[in-house]
Input
Amino acid sequence: MKEFDGRVRLIYKDFPLPSHALAIPAHEAARCAGAQGAYWPYHDILYRRQPHFERDDLVGYAIELNLERAGFERCVDDRTFRTAVMTDLEEARELGVRSTPTFLINGKPLVGAHPVENFRDAIADALEAAR
Amino acid sequence: MLSSPVVSLRFAISPSSRRVYTIAFGLTAVLALGLGCRAPGAQDRLTVDPTMTKGPATAAVTIVEFSDYQ
Output
């Protein structure tokens, strides 16, 4: 992102795999953090701490980020963002996404974990095509 | 190349059905993913939560990441 500053936008979409029992609560919790302006810091914590996504873990991460605890807990317990996460999941399935991570770079798919060079090349190609 | 069968399917079933439209859209995307080519406008139809984005909306390149935390 820094290398292509201003020329690239990243959109994160939830795709909790059904085989991961705690993935959906984690995705919902990240959106709860987003509601308090801390989506990306919480997102980063989730990747560092996976697979520890029990409720107490999720609340603990919010506390680490100095989020407002009661509001966060209410958001998680009420499953405020359940529909939003499910919408992402449905959209992914309709697109034919089957595994994670899957990237669309100006619509062109890049599936699986790739070295950074592959992303650099794909972004450069997309920038060239967009001229 | 990709649009013809999708358009045919959409109108053959019910042009007013959102579900059918979604299926048609899905077919386009599946074909695109399978063939490794671009699905025209596919990512423009996705819902976007502004808090889950980085970079300007006017950027020349948009990367959509579908991922799982666990």
Summary: The helical segments of chain A are 23-35, 39-49, 55-64, 69-78, 82-95, 116-130. Chain A has a mean pLDDT of 95. The longest strand of chain A covers residues 8-14. Chain A is about 55% helix and 10% strand.
